[in-house]
Amino acid sequence: MDEDTPRTDGGTERADGESTEDVALDPWGSASVGDYADLFAEFGIEAFDDVADDVVDHHYLMRRGVIFGHREYDAVAEAMANGEPFAALSGFMPTGDPHIGHKLVFDELIWHQERGGDVFGLIADLEAHSARGMSWDEIDEHARSYLLSLLALGFDPEDGELYRQSDNREVQDLGFELGSKANFSEFEAIYGFDGETNISHMQSVVTQTADILYPQLVDEPKPTVIPVGPDQDPHVRLTRDLATRLRYFKVTEAFASFEADEEVHQIIADAYDDLKEEAEKRDVDMIRCGWAAQYIDGGMDSVTWDINEFPDKDTVLAGTKPDPERDAINNLRNAVKEPLRPRVRFLDRNATDEAFEALIEAIDGEKRVFEGHVDAFEMTREEAESLAREVEIDHNGFGFRQPSSIYHRFMTGLTGGKMSSSIPASHISLLDDPEDGYDKVRSATTGGRDTAEEQRELGGEADECPVYELYAYLLAGDDDGLAAEVYSECVNGERLCGGCKEQAAELMREFLEDHQEKREEAEELLEDLDIDLDSDRRGTGGEH
């Protein structure tokens, strides 16, 4: 990406590496993050910059650092670059009018659709009813509004799918299956649920995991990205776990008949590489587990290279290696004379007897069959993953891939602090009268200095300015030149806040006028869609 493009990176990198505050991601709570860097260490979200080079023709939100993090997006980027199937999905909880913060997700879905993805937009009406206590009449009204804005911004319903959770039987059936792999203690740890949480709220969470996997029910399992704010990451993490638990087979790499965790496996792999090089010099054609135990414990000089000179299994070797090296040594010593050979392993997780037998039959080349797993010696990990998924699908399994995700920054409220739907002055609704949108921008807080003289001398603080965010996130659109100009003139003291807000206010008015005209044009398109926006459901909702 262009290094000269101004980026909204405040908070992603800290020189001291220390956290500024505790991080809690609550899908139904505060939509703010104090320090985005904490998300990398705390929850395993990866920096988007790490995968940016794999993406062709970046969206401007990627170029400007608004999209800051991801989980396994490289799989989606690779499929996109190679013209292979991939999908994108995101959901919208209809609890109010769509606003400019929601537009980030709308745009990300449309961008993926324009690049050949199967794209899904869903109305999370079950969540709105159970978690927010919305009535069905309110949900119907807001759902219609969300869909109109999505269509007005360019979503192609003929090339994608829009649906309501409550009307999608496939999603609800899948949610039932996924629920069999989850438990309350997990929900308690991830979401903070307790004895006061209503059951429908919990059920809506399982439904959302089914939503996230739903694109893989259409045609075939494929790389799928979920564009969201970081507050929705708990749903992504849970879904990735459940998708794995539902699989028939787990594919791992191994060197002997025993199973080892990732850290122990790497220690053994390193030992194997070193021993293989030495074995070739000694014209030894088969490395033994016992020799690897000797090597890890005492180095190459301690290896006897004699198959008859292994210590007894209950003999303590001389070294004092800590875990996990001690675990590696113990596992290898228990295997003793067994050959140490790289192989891929298929572990039976949920397979039927018929599926397990079919897998054994389908593995070409040398293989060893054990109770509960099969080792294949002539396959790559990638080939094994593909075969396991193929057999699973052929035997009525799902074969899900773990979903990917990308994360965008929250927009700062126009009045400072977080943007909140409950504070009208802090956000701009896509339904706001264009003149009201103009006035809100004109009244917005800025990152400017106290006086014009100070602004010219010291420059403005664009990275702390809600108005500059409007340019970067929305108003500049795909025009990096405009975003760069605003940023440069601000920080160099050439741009004063009054003129900057006037320009932004005019652009906001133009955007709202144009968007609302396109919403009117989308009315006919919405009427033709097979989606019920006049629900006859009854109920009082969940939490109030």
Automatic annotation (TrEMBL):
Keywords on record: Aminoacyl-tRNA synthetase, ATP-binding, Cytoplasm, Ligase, Nucleotide-binding, Protein biosynthesis
Domain of life: Archaea
Principal cellular location given in the protein's record: cytoplasm
Biased composition (Basic and acidic residues): 1-17, 534-544
Lineage: Archaea, Methanobacteriati, Methanobacteriota, Stenosarchaea group, Halobacteria
Name by which UniProt lists this protein: Tryptophan--tRNA ligase
Gene: trpS
Motif 'HIGH' region mapped to chain: 94-102
One Pfam family in the UniProt entry: tRNA-synt_1b
Single GO biological process annotation from the record: tryptophanyl-tRNA aminoacylation
